[in-house]
Amino acid sequence: MAAPRTASSADRRARIEAARRAEQARERRNRFLTIGISSVVVLSLVGFGTFILMKESDKRDAEKAAANAPIAAEKSWDPKKLGRNHVQTAVKYEMEPPVGGDHSPVWMNCDGVVYDKKIANVNAVHSLEHGAVWVTYNKKASQADVKKLADKVKNTKYSLMSPVDDQAGAIMLSAWGKQVTVDGASDPRVDAFFTKYVNGPQTPEPGAACTGGLDASGQGGTGMGQ
Q1: Which of 17, 46, 68 is the last residue of a domain?
Q2: Strands 111-114 and 133-137, how do they pair?
Q3: Same domain, yes or no: 80 and 188
Q4: Are strands 133-137 and 159-163 parallel, antiparallel or unpaired?
Q5: How far is the CA of 17 from the CAs of 12, 26, 50, 58, 89, in angstroms?
Q6: What's the number of CA atoms in the CB half-sphere (13 Å) around residue 147?
Q7: Label partner for 75 (CA 20 to 30 A): which of 26, 54, 62, 82?
Q8: Pairing verdict, β 159-163 and 111-114
Q9: Which pTM was predicted?
Q10: CB-neighbour burial class of residue 172 (10 A; exposed 0-12, middle 13-18, buried 19+)
């Protein structure tokens, strides 16, 4: 009579052992899955991080290349031959608009300022000395181009814009010792010029003030440059 009970106990132990082995197998599979998923996540994060770093590096390289690339039809003047004296009288410049030379002790405000009327060259040149890019236009420029350029200037520190009726080109961009005539507001040389010369390496006094000078009414000018 004891044999059936023994067989039953043995069967029960066998079932328990089989269940234990099955549970251990499930745990091993779960561990492998967890490790596998974690590895995939880590590798994905590493890959994404590497991708972002490479994109940032490519962006910096592209910006550096753009900053060093020559601008088509750009004119340059030797900065050593451009006077930097402060004068209280009118100055006759060899180019229009001027890109440097002796100038007023007071600069035009150039912190993204658009002037609707002509401004004095002697004050604008002082702004160039501080690192500003000066956008000028005459009556040949379209209103659409003028508006687009004005929007760009308003959103760019160290820039200013004003009409210059007697300049040769419809739209011209000037920095200290640098100047280019562009075909319109969408000309890629506009962005290239801004990228290269807003507080660029040609600037005699990079980072000097672009506020505290003259405003549109000709008032202000409490600051005095070097």
Answers
A1: 68
A2: unpaired
A3: yes
A4: parallel
A5: 9, 14, 49, 60, 105
A6: 3
A7: 62
A8: parallel
A9: 0.72
A10: buried
Q: What is 93-140 written as a DSSP string?
A: -SSSS--SSSB-SSPBP-EEEE-SS---HHHHHHHHHTT-EEEEE-TT
Q: What is the CATH number of the domain that holds 148?
A: 3.40.30
Is residue 52 domain-shared with residue 89, that is, in the same domain?
no
The total domain count for the chain is 2
Q: Does residue 42 sit within a domain?
A: yes
Pseudo-torsion of CA 62, 68, 69, 74, nearest 10°?
140
Residue 175: strand, helix, or coil: strand
Show pLDDT as tens, one digit a residue, over the chain (226 residues).
455 556 677 777 777 777 777 778 788 787 877 887 877 777 777 777 777 766 776 666 555 565 678 999 999 999 889 999 999 999 999 999 999 999 999 999 999 999 999 999 999 999 999 999 999 999 999 999 999 999 999 999 999 999 999 999 999 999 999 999 999 999 999 999 999 999 999 999 999 999 999 998 888 765 555 5
The answer to whether residues 153 and 135 touch, using CB atoms and an 8 Å cutoff, is: yes
Strand partners for 179: 75, 174
State which residues form the domain around 183. Answer: 75-197
Q: To which H or E segment does residue 172 belong?
A: strand 171-175
